[in-house]
């Protein structure tokens, strides 16, 4: 996208893009740090449960006092969206239940919305995106997060005439991480609890990065936004470095490890024995492509691309992502181009709550990154046939049966209030997008 000159012109004319930020946590703070140096960008309102803390965050990331003074800090995000005065809403709470409410309210008020909240996006994003299209506003993934960056690579590949074999991201993974809890998470990160607390790191949130839940959510979002599909029984997390992406991430029938072409997958920066992978992609994203003809395959070789043994598969990747520091791209794409930086358009991937240990009837589930469940990626049709409980609704609900470790939790296994808005929205999304096909 080429918008910087337009931004400069808008800045000169005093026509800033006005943003309402919901949630001034880590992602929100990273975004806020870029605001003073970005032309034609105004954060008019910041809605946070603790406005005084949000104001301190602005000061901590370098906002001058005069910028803080002219910004509204409020508790009520719904009132902020109803009041007008903003063009784009950024939902950065990370709470799937409130995220759905915020997204619908933004759409209802004719506001573009950038969903940092991948948890809400996976829970019911296809329905929200459809409602946004009908309302004439943009519903977008957040540029800087790995799903949007992966979708960008997929778009690049397809627009240049390549078949996409696989796409996804890197992470730190070992099988034992699935049972990690907020009490054990810092050992895996090589930190003490005191060091983590000093850095303001939330143990449950960081545990969701480690135990596989966040990876599953992000791959579901990519599947729902690109047409790629999940493997049938969860992510494989192969240990792969950048030199070997094309060799390993090709179908098993051709010597690779993929279940099928057109698959989402996460690669680990650790071998299964804990040794580091050479040239790992822990912080990045990738796409594996297939040459459509012999001439293109020859160009791979001539221009130094790493390929598989056949020379027909190669990969492009971005080694890092800057999270909230890159969010402006989504905001300006929505406000100036009326286009998303990645958007779900169907229900292809789902993330189901899965027991971390043997669970007993009467226990309360504690959701993403907690002590009881982690999120496993499934094809959407399989999740619906299973009746799997979405990880986004597996918080503060009581089990009514025992669940063995590593087994999925189903809707029928918990006491859940079907009258809750989030439950109704999810059920509506299921009916709209996949339930008839799943029943077949």
Structural summary, described in words:
It is a single chain. This protein folds into three domains: 4-144 and 325-337, NAD(P)-binding Rossmann-like Domain (Rossmann fold, 3-Layer(aba) Sandwich), CATH 3.40.50; 147-173 and 212-321, no CATH class; 349-439, Type Iii Antifreeze Protein Isoform Hplc 12, CATH 3.90.1210.10. 38% of the residues lie in helices and 18% in strands. The chain has 18 helices and 15 strands. The protein is globular.
SSE blueprint:
Blueprint (H helix, E strand, L loop, with lengths): L3 H10 L3 E6 L3 H9 L6 E7 L3 H10 L4 H5 L2 E3 L2 H7 L4 E4 L4 H13 L3 E4 L2 H18 L3 E3 L4 H14 L3 E9 L13 H5 L3 H6 L4 H8 L2 H14 L18 H4 L14 E6 L16 E6 L3 H9 L10 E6 L9 H10 L11 E7 L8 E3 L6 E7 H7 L8 E5 L14 E2 L5 H13 L1 H5 L1
Parallel strand pairs: 1-2, 1-4, 2-3, 4-5, 5-6, 7-8
Antiparallel strand pairs: 7-9, 9-10, 11-13, 12-14, 14-15
Provide a quick synopsis of the model:
The protein is of the alpha/beta class. Helix content is 38%, strand content 18%. α7 (118-135) runs parallel beside α12 and α8 (146-159) packs parallel to α12.
Oligomer: single chain
Q: At CATH's second level, what is the architecture of the largest domain?
A: 3-Layer(aba) Sandwich
Q: Low-confidence segments, ≥5 residues, pLDDT <50?
A: none
Q: Count the DSSP helices.
A: 18
What is the terminal-to-terminal distance?
Answer: 42 Å
CATH class of the largest domain: Alpha Beta
Q: Spatial order of the strands in the main sheet?
A: 3-2-1-4-5-6
Mean pLDDT: 96
CA gyration radius, whole angstroms: 22 Å
- Could you say which overall geometry the principal axes of the C-alpha atoms support? globular
């Amino acid at each position: 996208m080429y918008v910087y000159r337009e931004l400069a012109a808008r800045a000169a004319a005093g026509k800033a893009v006005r943003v309402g930020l919901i949630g001034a946590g880590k992602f929100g703070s990273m975004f806020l740090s870029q605001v003073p140096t970005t032309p034609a960008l105004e954060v008019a309102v910041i809605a946070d449960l603790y406005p005084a803390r949000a104001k301190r965050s602005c000061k901590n990331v370098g906002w001058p006092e005069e910028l803080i003074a002219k910004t509204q800090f409020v508790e009520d995000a719904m009132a902020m969206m109803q009041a007008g005065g903003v063009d784009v809403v950024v939902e950065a709470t990370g709470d799937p239940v409130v995220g759905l409410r915020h997204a619908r309210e933004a759409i209802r008020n004719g506001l573009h919305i950038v969903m940092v909240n991948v948890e809400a996006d996976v829970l019911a994003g296809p329905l929200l995106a459809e409602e946004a299209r009908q309302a004439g506003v943009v519903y977008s993934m957040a540029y800087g997060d790995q799903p949007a960056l992966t979708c960008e690579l997929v778009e690049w590949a397809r627009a240049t005439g390549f078949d996409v074999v696989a796409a996804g991201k890197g992470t730190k993974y070992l099988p034992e991480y699935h049972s990690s809890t907020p009490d054990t998470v810092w050992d895996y990160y090589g930190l003490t609890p005191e060091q983590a607390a000093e850095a303001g790191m939330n143990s449950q949130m960081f545990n969701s990065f480690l135990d596989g839940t966040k990876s599953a959510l992000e791959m579901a979002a990519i599947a729902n936004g690109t047409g790629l599909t999940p493997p049938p029984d969860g992510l494989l997390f192969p240990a792969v470095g950048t030199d070997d992406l094309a060799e390993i991430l090709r179908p098993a029938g051709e010597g690779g490890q993929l279940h099928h072409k057109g698959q989402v997958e996460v690669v680990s920066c650790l071998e299964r024995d804990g040794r580091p992978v050479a040239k790992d992609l822990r912080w990045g994203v990738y796409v594996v492509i297939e040459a459509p003809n012999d001439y293109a395959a020859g160009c791979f070789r001539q221009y130094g691309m790493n390929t598989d043994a056949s020379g027909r598969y190669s990969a492009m990747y971005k080694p890092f992502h800057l999270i909230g520091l890159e969010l402006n791209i989504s905001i300006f794409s929505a406000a100036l181009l009326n286009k998303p930086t990645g958007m779900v358009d169907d229900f292809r991937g789902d993330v189901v709550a899965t027991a971390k240990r043997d669970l007993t009837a009467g226990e309360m589930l504690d959701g993403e990154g907690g002590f009881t469940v982690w999120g496993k990626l499934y094809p959407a049709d399989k999740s619906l046939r299973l009746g799997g409980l979405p990880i986004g609704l597996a918080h503060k609900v009581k089990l009514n049966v025992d669940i063995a470790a590593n087994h999925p939790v189903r809707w029928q296994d918990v006491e859940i209030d079907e009258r809750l808005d989030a439950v109704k929205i999810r059920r509506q999304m299921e009916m709209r997008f996949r339930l008839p096909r799943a029943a077949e």
